[in-house]
Amino acid sequence: MTTNLLRGKSGEKVTPDANGLAIGETDARVFSCPGCARPLSNGTSRCPGCGSRLIMGVRIKRAGGILALGLVLGVFVGGVAAVSAIGLSLKGSAPAVAAQPSLAPAPVALAINPNAAPTTAALTGAPAGAISALSGTAVVNGRIAVDAATLEAALSRPGTPGIEIARALRSLAADATLGIDLTGRLGSWAAGAAVMSRLDDFYRSMATTAHDAFRRSLTDVAAYHRAGAVMMTVLAGLGGVDAASRSLATTVDLELPPVVLPAAITP
């Protein structure tokens, strides 16, 4: 009887495994452990030989990696599909947007109206972009005047921390960056070359002073107070460059916004 139990359907003798599995039986539902190649029955969650934990015949760590890879690929494919769908929808709606009539008045009305008054730029020969940039410098100068008053107040208070002076210097550095951008647009106007050079030098001097201060540690309060004092010296030239801008503006009948200089930098 023992001999019959250990034989497969083919009549050949098979050897039982420690788990009670008949190794070599043709219809046994077994698989090999991925860690030690030990034959195990389907559904085994842990190999008694090497201790590997299994899910459907695969190590748990490997199964987790496969699941994570599938998740990443799914998100990527879904994202590509969404972007493609949005791009196609925008492309399909472009003709409809282009077909809508513009609500802005047509600029050609001035060209066909012989009684229309020419612009200041057309009368003086000054580029329109340069005229706009010149007007913008007055706005920037107004901001510089406000930030200069803030810096002067911080410097006048005893015990002002370095971080407060640094904030004022950072605002002035931003003003200088805007000013440099505007003076670059004045380059197309030959008549404004001298004023452009003067404004550009002033704004760049502001920027350099602020950036030199930012190299210091905020804990070095004395260094920031010294940098603030240097900046106030630079800002003393604001009145002169603003007056030069206004003098140039009068040549094209351009009225610039007013700038109120604080007492600390009033000539």
Please name the defining characteristics of this protein.
single chain; 267 residues; mainly alpha; 2 domains; two-stranded antiparallel ribbon; 6 strands; 59% helix; elongated; disordered N terminus
Task: Describe the protein in words.
- The chain has 267 residues and is mainly alpha-helical.
- The protein has 2 domains: 1-6 and 13-76, no CATH class; 126-265.
- The chain contains 9 helices and 6 strands; from the N terminus they run H-E-E-E-E-E-E-H-H-H-H-H-H-H-H.
- It has helices at residues 2-5, 60-99, 108-112, 120-124, 128-156, 162-185, 193-214, 221-235, 238-250, and strands spanning 15-16, 22-23, 30-32, 39-41, 54-55, 58-59.
- The strands form 3 sheets. A two-stranded antiparallel ribbon has the order 1-2. A two-stranded antiparallel sheet has the order 3-4. It has a two-stranded antiparallel ribbon with strand order 5-6.
- Helix 6 runs antiparallel to helix 7 and helix 6 runs parallel beside helix 8.
- The relative contact order is 0.09.
- Mean pLDDT is 74; it is low at 1-18, 20-27 and 90-123.
Radius of gyration of CA atoms, rounded to a whole number: 40 Å
Return residue spans where pLDDT drops below 50 for at least 5 consecutive residues: 1-18, 20-27, 90-123
Number of domains: 2
Oligomeric state of shown chains: single chain
How would the global form be characterised? elongated
The separation of the N and C termini measures 121 Å
Which strand order does the major sheet show?
1-2
Number of helices: 9
- How much helix, percentage-wise, in residues? 55-70%
Q: Number of DSSP strands?
A: 6
Largest sheet: 2 strands, antiparallel
